[in-house]
Amino acid sequence: MRRTLSVAVFAPALLLCSSAWGAGQATPDEAKAMAVKAAEYLKSAGPEKAFADFDAQGNQWHDRDLYVTIQDNKGVMVAHGTNPGLIGKSMLNLRDVDGKLFNQEIQAIKDAGWVDFKWQNPVTKAVEPMRMYEVRTGDYIVGVGAYAQ
Question: Is 66 a domain residue?
C-alpha cells in the first residue's frame, strides 16, 4: 500500500519536472528542421540578408538553445547566431575540449549529415555534447545543433 501511494504521488511530479526541463532544451529533430529551413532561407533570401538575419537576436533563428551557424566552403565562419567574434575566422583547425577537429568533419559533408562534438551551451554556459545537423548549400554549410539532454 505504501509503495503504491508513493508511486501515485511522486510519478506525476517527476513527469512534470522532466517535461518542464525538456521544454527548455531543443531536440536533434528540432535542430535538423531548423537547419533545413535555414538552408532554404539562405537560397531564397541570398547570403547578405540571410547572414544578417541568422546573426540577429530575438527572431525565428533563435529558439531556446538552437541557433544557426554558417561556414563557407573553406571553413571560414560567415554567420554565427551566438558568437559574432567567430565571424571571419577559419574554423578548420578549431578543436573541441576533447581535441576533436570537428570542423573538418563539417567540411567533409557532401549533402547533409550530423557531426557530434562538445561546445559551450549559450543558455547554461556549460560545455556540453552537441549534435549538429549540417546542410551544404552551394558555397556554404548551414548548421544547427542540439545540446545533449
Answer: yes
Residue 16, in any domain of the structure: no
- The average pLDDT across 87-104 equals 95
| Residues paired with 120 in a beta bridge | 127
Angle at 83 between CA 69 and CA 44, to 5 degrees: 30
First to last CA, the chain: 34
CA atoms within 13 A on the CB side of 120: 5
Q: Is residue 17 one of the residues assigned to a domain? A: no
User: What pLDDT band is residue 23 in, cutting at 50, 70 and 90?
Assistant: low
Mean pLDDT of all residues in 115-144: 94
pLDDT band per the 50, 70, 90 thresholds, residue 122: confident
- How big is the chain by its Cα radius of gyration, in Å? 18
Cα distances (angstroms) measured from residue 129 to each of 12, 28, 65, 68, 96:
29, 12, 13, 17, 10
Q: Which domain holds residue 87?
A: 26-147
Alpha-carbon distance of 134 to 81, in angstroms, equals 15
Which residue did the predictor score with more confidence, 16 or 66? 66
pTM of the model: 0.81
